[in-house]
Amino acid sequence: MTRTTERVRHELRFRIASVVSSERITPRMARITLHDPDFSQFRSDAYDDHVKLFFARPGERLELPVAGPNGLDFPGTRPQGRDYTPRSFDTGKAEVVIDFVLHGEGPAASWAAAAQPGDTVGMGGPRASFVVRSDYDWYLLAGDDTALPAIGRRIEELPRGANVLAFIEVADEAERQIFHTPANLELRWVFRSAGERLTEALRRAALPPGAGYAFIAGESAASAQIRDYLIDERGVHPDNIKAAGYWRAGEADFYDGHQH
Ligand SMILES: Cc1cc2nc3c(=O)[nH]c(=O)nc-3n(C[C@H](O)[C@H](O)[C@H](O)COP(=O)(O)OP(=O)(O)OC[C@H]3O[C@@H](n4cnc5c(N)ncnc54)[C@H](O)[C@@H]3O)c2cc1C
């Protein structure tokens, strides 16, 4: 059986979307549903796709950018951009749902904490999708709350018969979410409030036999550490791991190219 990954490129599209609704699915996670007529053509083929959200600076209005020689050119001051995962989307309703960790200060977290129906946010992408086929013997998904949208989407999208091991680090028990999936799911929540860490939870876990694929995302140093551990101590081949830094402690607007 071939086990494959594939990168698919998409035409770059940009919209200014409106908030339809905002709910707290857990105390620290806001689920925001966005609408724009262009979302009837929204395309996101992979669970860890990302869009770039743009937030207007105080006193400024969001305006559509134009494509320039060095990427997007915004009229006036460039708005602040941050990466987020399309948690789900509905092309029929022209809606995209984003889950935001309410971690405190930052243009994205502050915007999400206060978002009301009718508020607007810019959205570019996804520009590409990294598709991991569902023919591996098992899937390991490990990450913190910022990876929870990607991990939750993957858990829900994997088909019947797929074997999934998920390790999710969140602040405390109130941050647990419920997933509905036809796959065989083994799920471990790791609570920072109890002094637990992802790496330690992984050390205690047995990996199933056969060829697996690991997706790791979250705080940059933590993701890199788990990747090294899987390669050095669990014998997972680097080609069968995607490890991404989604944020870095103490650094605003962190960017690592999204992949180690
Ligand atoms: C490909 C990709 C997909 C992502 N998907 C999601 C997603 O679906 N949902 C989501 O919530 N996040 C997601 N993230 C992470 C998100 O982009 C970052 O957390 C981002 O820094 C948030 O921007 P901000 O404006 O709130 O804070 P920033 O202005 O970037 O940072 C301000 C301060 O907050 C700290 N900080 C940032 N994030 C966190 C955090 N989670 N916990 C604690 N401190 C933090 C920074 O270190 C900095 O000190 C994704 C990141 C990537 C690269």
Give your account of this protein's structure.
The longest helix is centred in the C-terminal third of the chain and has 15 residues, at 220-234. The protein has helices at 107-114, 148-157, 198-203, 220-234, and strands at residues 5-9, 14-26, 29-35, 51-55, 66-68, 71-73, 80-84, 86-90, 95-101, 120-124, 128-132, 138-144, 163-170, 184-191, 212-219, 241-247. The strands form 4 sheets. It has a 7-stranded antiparallel sheet with strand order 7-4-10-2-3-9-8. The protein has a 5-stranded parallel sheet with strand order 14-13-12-15-16. The protein has 260 residues and is of the alpha/beta class. It is globular and about 55 Å long. The chain has 2 domains: 5-128, Beta Barrel (Elongation Factor Tu (Ef-tu), domain 3), CATH 2.40.30.10; 134-247, Rossmann fold (3-Layer(aba) Sandwich). The structure holds flavin-adenine dinucleotide. The site of flavin-adenine dinucleotide has 26 residues, from strand 7, strand 9, helix 1 and strand 16. Flavin-adenine dinucleotide is lined by residues 50, 82-85, 99-101, 103, 105-109, 146, 149, 246-254, 258.
How do the helices and strands line up, and which of them pair or pack?
Elements (H helix, E strand, L loop, with lengths): L4 E5 L4 E13 L2 E7 L15 E5 L10 E3 L2 E3 L6 E5 L1 E5 L4 E7 L5 H8 L5 E5 L3 E5 L5 E7 L3 H10 L5 E8 L13 E8 L6 H6 L8 E8 H15 L6 E7 L13
Parallel strand pairs: 12-13, 12-15, 13-14, 15-16
Antiparallel strand pairs: 1-11, 2-3, 2-10, 3-9, 4-7, 4-10, 5-6, 8-9
The structure holds flavin-adenine dinucleotide.
The site of flavin-adenine dinucleotide has 26 residues, from strand 7, strand 9, helix 1 and strand 16.
